[in-house]
Design goal:
The structure is a single chain. The chain has helices at 65-74, 101-114, 127-138, 160-170, 172-181, 198-201, 224-233, 248-251, 254-267, and strands spanning 22-27, 33-39, 50-55, 79-83, 119-125, 144-148, 210-215, 237-242. The chain is of the alpha/beta class. Strand 7 (210-215), helix 7 (224-233) and strand 8 form a beta-alpha-beta unit. Helix 2 crosses helix 3 (127-138) and helix 4 (160-170) crosses helix 5 (172-181). The relative contact order is 0.15.
């Protein structure tokens, strides 16, 4: 993917400066409407300071309680932007489960830059973790990257939760469950071509600081996934294996979220 020069278009021309909460819709480079919200958090008087862009997991959205909990914790360390990926929540389009979602994240990163922030840290969970890796490795434009509970490679079916997820994504009945049971609208077409995988994108992130976080009790992706990512990152990456943690936002304890905030504040920019 070429480096994006797209700047997001806010459908609601609020004109709000950094330091004021904003809820708006952004337009991605491929024309999808993305629901996004910005909250000033700590250091609200300094628009050039750090902003966290939180990328949720599959079937999440900006208003889900677990996403709001992450945002509240990170707001103690900087401003926070949350959004709903395509096919999720109030955003338009259909989920491609980590492929074109890179364009959603790129629109939000460009937006917070327009608000005046000089330092941007992307923090992604599960699917969102794969998206922040691919965005940073293929497109750039961030000052620190945190990937939590992310897969290293595509098409993994080695655990029961991942077999259920593949049924949800690939079968018509599964997509109906996604739409009406999980409020997630899933694209019916398979990837063509198959996008660059997270582990293939990771070497391109350097020299941007990278943190990989994974729970040792993760029921979706075993520990070979974070270890593959860390090996691909080399010296510019850090790996935290959390002994009591399961999978993604719901399993991330408050203490871990604050450690992530401290790490990003010290490494970004």
């Amino acid at each position: 993917m070429a480096r994006s020069t797209h700047r997001p278009h806010a459908e609601t021309a609020d004109g709000s400066p950094a330091g004021a909460p904003v809820r708006t819709f952004l337009r991605t480079a491929d024309g999808v409407s993305i629901d996004a919200r910005y909250e000033p958090g700590a250091g609200a008087g300094d628009a050039g300071d750090l902003v966290f862009v939180v990328a949720h997991g599959f079937t999440g959205d900006a208003d889900r309680p677990h996403v709001r909990r992450v945002a509240a914790a990170l707001a103690r360390h900087g401003a926070v932007a949350t959004f709903s990926f395509r096919g999720h929540g109030a955003s338009g389009g259909l989920s491609t489960v980590g492929d074109r979602e890179v364009l959603d994240l790129a629109a939000v990163v460009a937006w917070v830059r327009e608000l005046g922030h000089g330092r941007v840290a992307t923090v992604g969970f599960s699917m969102g973790g794969s998206v922040v890796l691919r965005h940073a490795g293929l497109d750039g434009g961030t000052d620190a990257v945190v990937s939590v509970s992310a897969p290293a490679r595509w098409f993994y079916r080695g655990t029961a939760p991942m077999r259920r997820l593949h049924w949800l994504v690939t079968r018509p009945a599964g997509r109906l469950v996604g739409r009406y049971g999980l409020r997630t609208r899933i694209h019916r077409r398979r990837w063509d071509p198959v996008p660059v995988s997270p582990v293939e994108a990771v070497p391109g992130i350097a020299p941007t600081p990278l943190l990989i976080v994974h729970g040792e009790r993760d029921g979706y992706f075993p520990l070979d996934h974070p270890r593959m990512l860390a090996e691909a990152a080399g010296d510019h990456g850090e790996l935290w294996l959390e002994p009591e943690m399961g999978h993604a936002e719901n399993a991330a304890p408050e203490e871990l979220l604050h450690r992530i905030g401290h790490w990003a504040a010290g490494r970004a920019g």
